[in-house]
Specification:
Layout (H helix, E strand, L loop, with lengths): L1 H14 L32 H19 L4 H13 L8 E3 L2 E8 L2 E10 H4 L7 E5 H8 L3 E8 L6 E8 L5 E7 L4 E2 L5 E5 L2 E6 L2 E5 L15 E6 L8 E5 L6 E8 L5 E11 L2 E7 L5 E3 L6 E7 L2 E6 L3 E2 L8 E2 L6 E2 L6 E2 L4 E4 L6 E5 L5 E8 L4 E7 L2 E10 L2 E6 L7
Antiparallel strand pairs: 1-2, 2-3, 3-4, 5-6, 6-7, 7-8, 7-9, 10-11, 11-12, 12-13, 14-15, 15-16, 16-17, 18-19, 19-24, 20-23, 21-22, 24-25, 26-27, 27-28, 28-29
Length: 411
């Protein structure tokens, strides 16, 4: 909580920086051309020297913030906002209902809980606790921080719960039964580490983690993905994909149809922090690289297509282009000579065929803020001339068609 409040306070102080004198300045010397970087030792992020330096800088920052006369006011207001019991509980779909992670003054570490759709839509939802992390921390003598759960669709009964002892990137993963509201005895359980896990079926996982020497990148993340069966020792897991030690990380990605069935398995290599390359898993156990630009944002999978926003231009060959539909008035627009997709375009990409379709090309006054996939719809939130708007896209024989929801102007 202290870290969060300091971050909120830092933002407030930044807004008033013109009116407040500078009280602190951290100078890192720059190396002359050809000289050795005097701070290269900070690249070893787990070394005692680097960690001690970070602790020192944190202490200096806290001393400046917490002695500012405005700190107590901002601390009080931020704490009231973050722990208010009348705030809207943010829901996610979980099986036949919704789940929510809730923190307040009585539940500092939080409750992972669920409710039925009908109950959530009522003025006073009846929440059923799945995991009380304050109680679990007391019982196990740990500082468990909930980092999310990966559940097996479509019923979402079995979940892989990620927990950090203290809030770091490294997590312990345990299998949880949402029907029994308990961790599965003898179920999947992975020791603390930087790791990514996806379900293939109730007894099979794809896992990227530390498998021993030579399996972590220089950033400390895994670049080897293996397939693990229930009851199988981790040492016997079968390798299915390998990136390189120079990547940021490598992860499995499972694409499912609306019924929860696996349609494709992809492997993602993070070649830089904002750049990635994708490979498609083939039936014979091999892989094939996908013809995608490196700078993309993946929003989901709908009607056998990955829904993507491009963060860079993508030269597109004629095989990728067909009749396209733009954007809100249901008027067809064919772009037979369109030479490329541009940064900001929302596209649909079929990983099996490599075909790409333009869904939405923002005008000079439009920006896509977010896109989300439901069972058979694509929801696109955008700014249109600095006004919020929400479009619902459907894919059918005539292409992609949008309907704009009639929200009040200025949303």
């Amino acid at each position: 909580m202290r870290t969060l409040l300091c971050a909120a306070f830092s933002a407030a102080v930044a807004l008033s920086a013109l009116a407040a004198p500078a009280t602190m300045n951290v100078q890192l010397p720059s190396a002359a051309p050809g000289a050795t970087d005097p701070f290269a030792w900070l690249e070893d992020i787990h070394s005692p020297k680097a960690l001690a330096w970070v602790e020192t800088q944190n202490a200096r920052t806290a001393a400046v913030l917490e002695t500012d006369p405005r700190y107590a006011l901002f601390h009080r207001d931020a704490l009231a906002i973050f722990t208010a019991k009348d705030r809207i509980p943010y829901p996610r779909f979980l099986g036949s209902g919704v789940d929510n992670f809730w923190q307040d003054q009585d539940h500092v570490k939080g409750l992972w809980r669920r409710a039925t759709f009908a109950s959530y839509n009522s003025p006073t939802p009846a929440w059923e606790t799945l995991i009380d992390f304050d109680a679990l921390s007391r019982a196990e003598g740990k500082n468990w921080i909930f980092k999310g759960a990966t559940c097996l669709p479509p019923d979402d009964r079995l979940c892989l719960v990620r927990m950090s002892n203290g809030g770091g990137d490294a997590v312990e993963i345990r299998e949880f039964d949402t029907r029994a509201r308990a961790f599965v005895s003898g179920g999947f359980h992975f020791a603390v580490g930087k790791q990514t896990i996806e379900w293939l079926d109730p007894d099979t996982l794809l896992i990227a983690r530390d498998f021993g020497p030579g399996t972590l990148t220089a950033s400390g993340y895994p670049f080897v993905v293996k397939e693990l069966k229930r009851g199988q020792p981790l040492a016997d897991a079968k390798e299915v994909f390998r990136g390189t030690a120079h990547d940021v990380s490598a992860d499995p990605v499972v694409l499912r149809g609306p019924d929860g069935a696996v349609e494709h398995v992809l492997y993602r290599r993070g070649v830089a922090f904002f750049s990635a390359r994708f490979w498609l898993a083939l039936p014979d156990g091999g892989t094939r690289p996908l013809d995608l630009p490196e700078k993309i944002e993946v929003h989901g999978y709908l009607d056998h297509r990955m829904i993507l926003t491009l963060n860079e231009a993508w030269p597109a060959g004629p095989s990728r282009l067909g009749p396209q539909l733009l954007p809100h008035d249901s008027a067809r627009l064919v772009w037979p000579g369109h030479p490329a997709f541009t940064a900001g375009d929302l596209i649909a990409f079929n990983p099996a065929t490599g075909a790409a379709e333009l869904i939405f090309h923002p005008s000079p006054t439009q920006t896509v803020n977010e896109a989300a996939v439901t069972q058979n719809r694509l929801l696109v939130e955008l700014l249109d001339n600095v006004n919020g708007a929400l479009d619902i896209w459907r894919h059918g024989p005539g292409g992609w068609r949008a309907q704009r929801l009639a929200f009040p102007k200025g949303l």
